[in-house]
Structures are given as structure tokens and as C-alpha cells.
Design brief:
single chain, 361 residues, alpha/beta, three-stranded parallel sheet
Length: 361
């Protein structure tokens, strides 16, 4: 199972968001976040996910640790650091001037403005080992300085990102809620839209004309609403969370009915790690059949990642990634959202999870 993902490495930025106030933010040692990443990666595998495209903050060392077998986790395509304008969705400086971020050698700065600075920052992210360039083309839900519908970066700046990534045959992925930001991204040549909350007819047409992908991320919206109901969501984001939840479902339905290519993505890291396959049930809620939803997280996702020759289907010559459940997902797709129903996970022929060992030895 392939997932489009976010924030394997939990950062101080996310901690501050969960508290709702920078003054309450505990400042943890940097090393703690890497140990948390180990647990998050294990939870992801145990949920039945063998490949993820990380949308920010997992660095090259995290990827190496998985590849070298030091820790258990899905194979990773990493973006290292999302790019943001000053005052944008990944600018961690608050109105008070206080800045809450993790920084260390090998982790480029996020903020860049103007074509020249953007070009340099993309090159720095690629130097740091990024497999894909991640950009915030709109504001976000958990963001103190903007709103999800605010466009960010000019088309010229976005075109520079696409050009630099293309020199290495790499893609750009765009965090995009508002319709203006979606259009800017698509018109600049970006082929992967994450969220797509406020899609209008022109957005749908551009997605189709550009043969672009839309990443669904319904799980994070559900998780935000669950936190809101518990009173655990930042006060400055509560209204945005409600609006995004309502509009996102309608946009996904509209895109699906129009024939836009949809891929399963969760924004795990904002949503809790280890619940990834709950997204499949939400895909069926917008109209997909269970097999379509499964393919959105396997076959189609592998195409988006450019890995369809290695993963996504079970065929001779491909890597042996296999997930076995104790339920029939074609009869109960939502059962896959419970990791206890995932009884075996194999990645490249190696068993990473087996909760019924006597049945498979």
C-alpha cells in the first residue's frame, strides 16, 4: 500500500500548534523527534503501508536509516523541507516575533521570496536529498498567519520550482486548499495537488487538461474535527477546520465524478500516525467502489510516485510488497482502517509485521 504522507519527523512547530499557544510550547531536545519518528514509521508499516511520499521534515538520514535496516518503516520519497513565502504556511515566525522551528545542518530553511531566492532554495532542498519538491501554494488550517484560501507564491516563482526539479526529472507537489492557489500551481506545471479543498469548475478543467493528480487527504480533516470536538484544536484554526472539512468532501466528489485522477493521501503527522487506511473508507464515501479505493492507494499511487515498474501491483519482476488482512476489504473497506485487522505486512519479501506467526511460518 502506498500513501502520500506528511511529517514523519514531528517538529516543535506541530507541538506548538497542538497547544494553541507558543508560550505553552515545550521545547524538546532535537534527538527526541528522531526517536518519535522511529515509532511513527513502525506505526505506518503496521497499518499496512509500505511506501510513503513524505510531505515535509523527514530528512535524508531518516530515509537512510530505513534503507539500511536500522529501523523498520516504509520506503520513503522525501521532500525534506516544504517551501513557504514570508508569512506563509511554513513560516514559523509568529506575529509576536517568536519563532518555533527545528533547525540543524542538512535541513534547509523553508522561507523564500522572489524568483532568485526560490531557485536557490529549491537547489538547497535537492542538495539535502529531496526526491520531490514540496511547496505551500496556499495557506493552511493549522497556521497562525494565513488562511487556507490565501494564494502564496507567484506563478513565476512556481515555474522556477518546476524548472529546477525537472532538471533532475523530479516532481513538485503543492499543498493547495484555495482555488486560486490550485490554478497557479497547475498553470505553472505542477502535477500533484495535495488537498484541493475549494475546487471550482476551472480547477477541475485544469486538473483534467494537465493530466494532474489530486491527493485526497480526508483523514486529516476528520482528525481535525475529532480534536475540535474534544476542545483540543487551536482557537485560531477552528473555523478554518470546519470549512475545510465541509468543502473538501464536496470537492473530492466533484473531482471524482469528473474523472480527475485521485490518489490516497492522509497528511499523517497532522492526522495521527498509524490510521492511514481509514482514508480508503472516506474514498468510498465520495463514490468509489472498494477496489477503486484500494487502487488509489496502490496502483495509481505508484504511478504518481513514478514507481509503477516496482510497486503498486503484484506481478512478476516487481518488489514483493504484500499486505494481508483478516477481513475482506471488498465487503468491508473500513475494516482496513483498524491496524489490528492487518495481520501481515511484507516489504520486498521481508516480513515486517506478522501477528499470526503460526499461520505463516
Amino acid at each position: 500500500m502506498v500513501d502520500s504522507y506528511s511529517l514523519v519527523l514531528l517538529t516543535a512547530m506541530c507541538t506548538s500548534c497542538s497547544q494553541g499557544s507558543a508560550s505553552k510550547t515545550p521545547i524538546h531536545p532535537l534527538s527526541l523527534y528522531f526517536y518519535q519518528a522511529v515509532e511513527n514509521l513502525k506505526k505506518t508499516v503496521d497499518a499496512g503501508v509500505t511506501t510513503v511520499r513524505d510531505a515535509g521534515m523527514a530528512d535524508y538520514g531518516v530515509k537512510m536509516a530505513v534503507e539500511e535496516g536500522l529501523i523498520s518503516g516504509p520506503r520513503l520519497q522525501i521532500s525534506v523541507m516544504p517551501l513557504s513565502i514570508t508569512g506563509g504556511h511554513f513560516d514559523t515566525r509568529l506575529k509576536s516575533g517568536h519563532e518555533v522551528k527545528t533547525t540543524y545542518p542538512g535541513l534547509p530553511n523553508s522561507v523564500c521570496d522572489g524568483a532568485d531566492e526560490v531557485r536557490k532554495r529549491v537547489r538547497e532542498v535537492l542538495r539535502a536529498g529531496a526526491d520531490v519538491v514540496k511547496v505551500m501554494v496556499t495557506g493552511g488550517v493549522i497556521s497562525a498567519n494565513d488562511s487556507p484560501d490565501f494564494p502564496q507564491f507567484t506563478r513565476e516563482e512556481l515555474q522556477v520550482m518546476v524548472e529546477e526539479a525537472s532538471f533532475r526529472n523530479l516532481q513538485v507537489m503543492a499543498h493547495a486548499h484555495g482555488s486560486k492557489g490550485v490554478k497557479n500551481a497547475l498553470n505553472a506545471g505542477i502535477k500533484s495537488i495535495e488537498h484541493g479543498t475549494y475546487l471550482d469548475d476551472e480547477c477541475i478543467d485544469l486538473l483534467l487538461e494537465n493530466d494532474a493528480w489530486l491527493i485526497t487527504t480526508q483523514l486529516v480533516n476528520v482528525s481535525n474535527m475529532e480534536l475540535l470536538e474534544k476542545g483540543e484544536f487551536p482557537y485560531f484554526s477552528q473555523e478554518d477546520a470546519k470549512n475545510v472539512w465541509i468543502n473538501s468532501r464536496e470537492s473530492m466528489k466533484k473531482a471524482y465524478q469528473a474523472g480527475v485522477k485521485l490518489v490516497m493521501g492522509t497528511d499523517s503527522g497532522i492526522a495521527p500516525h498509524g490510521q492511514n487506511l481509514r482514508e480508503l473508507g472516506f474514498l468510498c464515501d465520495i463514490g468509489m467502489e472498494p477496489m477503486e479505493a484500494i487502487q488509489a492507494g496502490t496502483k495509481k499511487a505508484s504511478q504518481l510516485l513514478g514507481m509503477e515498474d516496482k510497486i503498486g501491483t503484484i506481478e512478476e519482476g516487481k518488489l514483493a510488497d504484500v499486505v494481508i488482512s483478516k477481513t475482506n476489504p471488498l465487503n468491508d473497506i473500513k475494516s482496513l482502517g483498524n491496524p489490528e485487522n492487518i495481520i501481515l505486512v511484507m516489504k520486498e519479501g521481508n516480513i515486517l509485521k506478522n501477528i499470526r506467526k503460526s499461520s505463516f511460518t
